[in-house]
Each structure stands twice: as structure tokens, then as C-alpha cells.
Specification:
Blueprint (H helix, E strand, L loop, with lengths): L6 H18 L9 H24 L10 E2 L5 E6 L7 E6 L2 E6 L5 E6 L3 E7 L2 H6 L1 E8 L6 E8 L1 H18 L9
Antiparallel strand pairs: 1-2, 2-3, 3-4, 4-5, 6-7, 7-8
Helix pairs in contact: 1-2
């Protein structure tokens, strides 16, 4: 399920192109401090990545903080996509996590919230700068016991939305979770 562009690879390619363009320009680089130039290129790279992601996402609705009711009565609690992804979409409802793959959403994976055992979040240093991260789900789902929502924007908020949704689903279905020793 790894369809989103690798952020570190994209960052490295944009930095390399920026350095190449700067070297080919008429700017005399000898008069500038190398650390300052490196910081500037890093800032420009992050800005370019954010702008690219925003352009990609203009056609995709982000519904964080808004409740939407689907035709089957489920409430959409959050909807988003991986950073720089064109063909993956995540939807968290009050009943399940849905992962849509493909430009026209041909493949769909559902993970029932009552089956989720554990939710973790991870962020690298570069992901923290872009406010993205991965959310790891462990569940009793037979087909995908471990699933990762990759490169999610605002991972802390999404983690909390998901945690609350799991607890609410368990309460609604009168289920309790017992840890195995």
C-alpha cells in the first residue's frame, strides 16, 4: 500500500535541483556563508513540498473537525490523504477506517473500529517540520492485522480522532478489550 511519493527522495531531488539552479545562476556564491545557503535551500525545499502537496490536494476535500453523514448512516469523522499522494485516500468513520487506493478508488480496505487493538503514531524529524506522520494500527483484522496510514497531515489530531472513535465504537457495541498475557 505504498503509493505516496517518498518524502525524503522528493526532498533530496528538490534540494539537488535548487543547488543546480543556484550554481548555474549569475549569483556569486563565494560571498555567502555555506551554512546560511544550506539553511535557505532547506527552507525553499520545504516550501516547495508544501506548495506541491497543496496543489495535489485542491481537488480532495479535507474534512477534519467536521461531521459528514454517509448514505449508510455512518458519520465521517475525518478524511484525508497521504502527503504528496494522488491515489490514496483515508476515511475514518464512527464504525471503521477505510483506505481507498487508485485514481478512481478501485480498491478499498475496511478495518472495523471494534477490531482495533492498538494505535501508535510516529514522526521523523523532517516529517515534524511538515506536520505529517504515520499512524500504525494493530487489529484483529484477518487480512491486514497491521496497517499504516502513511504521511498523514496533523498526525496528533488524527490519532486522537481515531482513538476516541475506537473507544466510542467499543462502548456502542458493548465490547471490552482484554489484553493477552
Amino acid at each position: 500500500m505504498e503509493n505516496s511519493m517518498n518524502i525524503n527522495e522528493a526532498r533530496a531531488r528538490i534540494k539537488a535541483r535548487s543547488w543546480q539552479a543556484l550554481a548555474q545562476s549569475d549569483v556569486d556564491l563565494k560571498t555567502y556563508d555555506q551554512n546560511a545557503l544550506d539553511s535557505l535551500i532547506g527552507i525553499v525545499t520545504d516550501a516547495a513540498l508544501l506548495e506541491l502537496d497543496e496543489e495535489i490536494g485542491n481537488s480532495i476535500v479535507q474534512t477534519a473537525g467536521r461531521e459528514v453523514v454517509e448514505e449508510d448512516g455512518e458519520k465521517v469523522l475525518w478524511e484525508g490523504r497521504p502527503f504528496l499522494s494522488l491515489n490514496t485516500r483515508y476515511v475514518i468513520t464512527n464504525e471503521r477506517v477505510r483506505i481507498f487506493e487508485g485514481m478512481l478508488a478501485k480498491d478499498r480496505e475496511d478495518i472495523e473500529l471494534v477490531r482495533v487493538q492498538d494505535i501508535d503514531q510516529s514522526q521523523s524529524i523532517s516529517e515534524r517540520l511538515l506536520n505529517i506522520g504515520d499512524i500504525h494500527l494493530r487489529s484483529h483484522d484477518r487480512s491486514h492485522p497491521e496497517t499504516v496510514l502513511r504521511n498523514v497531515k496533523g498526525p496528533q489530531e488524527v490519532h486522537e480522532i481515531l482513538r476516541r472513535a475506537v473507544l466510542d465504537a467499543r462502548k456502542r457495541h458493548k465490547l471490552t478489550y482484554r489484553e493477552e498475557m
